[in-house]
Amino acid sequence: MKTEKGLFENMCSFENANISFHQAAKCRRYGEEVLAFSMELEENLVRACDELRGLTYQPGEYTVFKVWEPKERLVMALPFYDRVIQHMVCNVIEPPFERKFYYHSYACRPGKGMHAASDTLYKWLYETMILQGLKMHAIKGDISGYFANIPHEPLKADIRRTIGDRKVLTITDRIIDHNGILPDGVGNPVGNLTSQLFANVYGHRLDMFIKHTLKVKYYIRYMDDFIILSDNLPQLREWFRRIEEFLETEMLLHLNPKSTILYAGNGIDFCGYIHFPDHRKVRKASIRRLKQSVKEYKAGEISREYFYRVIESRKGHLGHADTWHILKALEYDLLFFEAEKERKVGQNPGNKNIILVP
To answer: Residue 151 gets which letter from DSSP?
Structure first.
């Protein structure tokens, strides 16, 4: 089996370190850690190169916190210096993996993402159910606690099937083993750039089983969530059983109990949207968050500038679904609110041309 070698020197190069700094600092350029790092930029980049080249690099301490959107997650963040190191590692080892990954795996990959995954599923539903007139059912699968339960030894074995550079493997092993508050030998911390790549590497096992062993035609995965479509319901039940067995015996993982088989015509919840054969809706939770932002703005709890940044972000998400009526109602609501606010205060609030829907 051919593996990639000769990667180590590129990983330790100053050029790679400089590129990695700019990648890690993107959208955080005025953050305290980034500014402190930038004050002695050349010295810090040389230090990163030297520690990797000498195999003396040891990952720093995690800052542990929780996030609640879109769902509760435990995040472990490394210091900025370590994030630069992780970019240096990923810049070199990601391309060999990327060439092997399953095309319809969409999470944390260049040119992919949630919207591309949603577009693909919607296209498949339209082609099979509208154009071909098939009655499609779907496996909606979710791997339980995926990041926190990836076993280290099988993951390291998978990495070695692609990477043959021993010095690079020394660094990747060290990063994998440094898993914060997770149990020894298990788990990739959510928050690491390398964790995203390693999770895709391990998930490739499932992709190959479903595509090459089960020979499924319509299969799409976004990290720990996957969808399989078929008009053969008994076949789907058999696939569901075999996938559950494969995850438990070959990957030491489990399906979430909420994984199920459903009729595709009733809508498939995937990547932030409810997919139907002829249209898409956004999740009710997205609408609730949007309305909550409007409520906070009207109550004066958030600034106008911050609110409209939030609205633009929400608009980008909503724009991929059939939400014209929602955006138009929001537009009118805000127009009336701003007009009433201007009347009461007697001053121009700023830009009165609130256009959310073209």
So the answer is: B
